Amino acid sequence: MLLNCYQYEFLEAGCDEAGRGCLAGPVFAAAVILPKGFVLEGLNDSKQLTHTQRDLLRPIIEKEALAWAVASCDHEEIDKINILNASFLAMHRAIEQLKTQPKYLVIDGNRFKAYPQIPHSCIIKGDGKYLNIAAASILAKTHRDEYMTNLHIDFPEYNWQKNKGYPTIAHRRAVIEIGLSPFHRKTFNVSAPQLDLFSKNI
Q1: Is the pLDDT at 104 greater than 70, yes or no?
Q2: Distance CA 194, CA 186 (A)
Q3: pLDDT category of residue 114 using cuts at 50, 70 and 90
Q4: How far apart are CA 121 and CA 23, in angstroms?
Q5: Measuring CA to CA, which residue among 4, 127, 10, 15 is closest to residue 69?
Q6: How far apart are the C-alpha atoms of 59 and 139, rounded to whole Å?
Q7: Which cofactors is this protein said to need (predicted)?
Q8: Is 74 annotated as a binding residue?
Q9: Is residue 185 classed as helix, strand or coil in its secondary structure?
Q10: 196 is in an annotated binding site
Q11: Which of 86, 104, 127, 132 could form a disulfide with 137 if both were Cys (CB 3.0 to 4.6 A apart)?
Q12: Bridge partners for 30 per DSSP
């Protein structure tokens, strides 16, 4: 069972990102402050949930949270400062947009660039341990999926509606055959040693 938050002394925001390993599109991040005693059946790490489950949980989180915000860094920023720094920047932007500023941050993962004047803790697999990080993971994931689905309308050949920009074999193959779209991350490696091995089965 997930805990409400990491500590109870200070008002706390959970933070997580989505899209870090994608070939195309922005990296999204969310920050969420939940009420004390908040309970939501089914709330868990977004990776453990189906698309339908995430979409059902998102409006409840957005309605019931004390504060929430979603922000992003686009593909050009990712190419300029690298994906790790872009993930940190997207989280900073989300925190900055919170209508209520937290006094403590919990970050999913093992690294973070400190946000000015707010202490933090990094929690490995935190989205499966704390409700506020799980909520952030769902908001980051659903907002990013929505963004990539909208991009798919103009770039259907990459099938972003299905793969959301992640490096599936079919997505890599499309880039190799068609070329990069304006939204692909140019510093990411599109080819892979296993591509030829699997391409015959696509």
Answers
A1: yes
A2: 20
A3: very high
A4: 29
A5: 15
A6: 9
A7: Mg(2+); Mn(2+)
A8: no
A9: coil
A10: no
A11: 127
A12: 16, 70
Phi-psi region of 15 (alpha: psi -120 to 50; beta: other; left: phi over 0): beta
Q: What is the mean pLDDT of the segment spanning 43-70?
A: 95
| Structure tokens belonging to residue 86 | 């872009």
Looking at the chain, the whole-number percentage of residues with pLDDT higher than 90 is: 91
| Helix/strand/coil percent split, the chain, to 5 | 45, 15, 40
CB atoms within 10 A of CB 192: 12
Q: DSSP 3-state assignment of 134?
A: helix
DSSP 8-class letter at 112 = -
Q: How far apart are the first and last CA of the chain?
A: 39
pLDDT value at residue 189 = 84
**Confidence at 190, pLDDT banded by 50, 70, 90:** confident
Specify burial of residue 150 (Cβ count, 10 A radius: 0-12, 13-18, 19+).
Answer: exposed
Max alpha carbon distance in the chain (Å)?
Answer: 57
Please give the DSSP secondary-structure letter assigned to residue 130. B
Q: Using CA atoms, how far apart are residues 83 and 24, in angstroms rounded to an integer?
A: 12
What radius of gyration, in Å, describes the C-alpha atoms of the chain? Answer: 17
The pTM for the full model equals: 0.92
Answer yes or no: is pLDDT of 194 > 50.
no
Average pLDDT value for the chain: 93
Instruction: Provide φ and ψ at 67, rounded to 5°.
Output: -160, 145
Write the burial class of residue 171 (CB in 10 Å: 0-12 exposed, 13-18 middle, 19+ buried).
buried
